Amino acid sequence: MKASNAVWKERLRGQLPPQLAEEIDTFETEIELRSQDKADEKVFAETRLRRGVYGQRYDNGQRHDGTQSRDLPFADKVTKGPHTMWDAPGMQRIKIPYGGLNPEQLELLAELAEEYSDGIAHVTTRQDIQLHFIHIEDTPALMRRLAAVGITTREACGNSVRNVTGCPYMGVCPDEPFDATPYANALTQFLLGHPDAQNFGRKFKPSVSGCEQHACGLAQMHDLGLVARVRTLDGQEQRGFKVVVGGGLGAVPRQAKVFDEFMPPEEILPVAQAIARIFGRHGEKKMRSRARLKFLIEKMGMEEFKTAVLEERAKLPEDPRWTDFVRDIENHEEQPLKPPGELPPLNGNARLNQWIKTNLRDQRQPGYVVATIALPLGDLTADQLRALADIARQFTRGTVRTTVEQNFVLRWVSKYDVPALYQALDAAGLSEPGASNLLDIVACPGTDTCKLGISSSRGLAAELRQRLAAKGVELDQALQDLHVKISGCFNSCGQHHAADIGFYGVSRTVQGFKVPHFQVVLGGQWEENAGSYGLPIVAIPSKRIPRALDLITDYYLRERQADERFPKFVGRIGKAKIRAVLDDLTKDAPAHEDEPDFYADWGDPRQYSIGDIGKGECAGEVVTQYEFETTAAERIVFEAQIHLEEGNASQAAKDAYRAMIKSAKALVQLQYDDVTEEDPDEVIDEFKERYYDTEVFHDPYAGPKFAHYLFAAHEKAGQNYDAESAHHLIEESLLFIEAVHSCYNRIRSAGLSEAGAS
Question: Which CATH number fits domain 173-331: 3.40.50.720, 3.40.630.30, 3.40.50.1400, 3.30.413.10?
Answer without folding.
Answer: 3.30.413.10
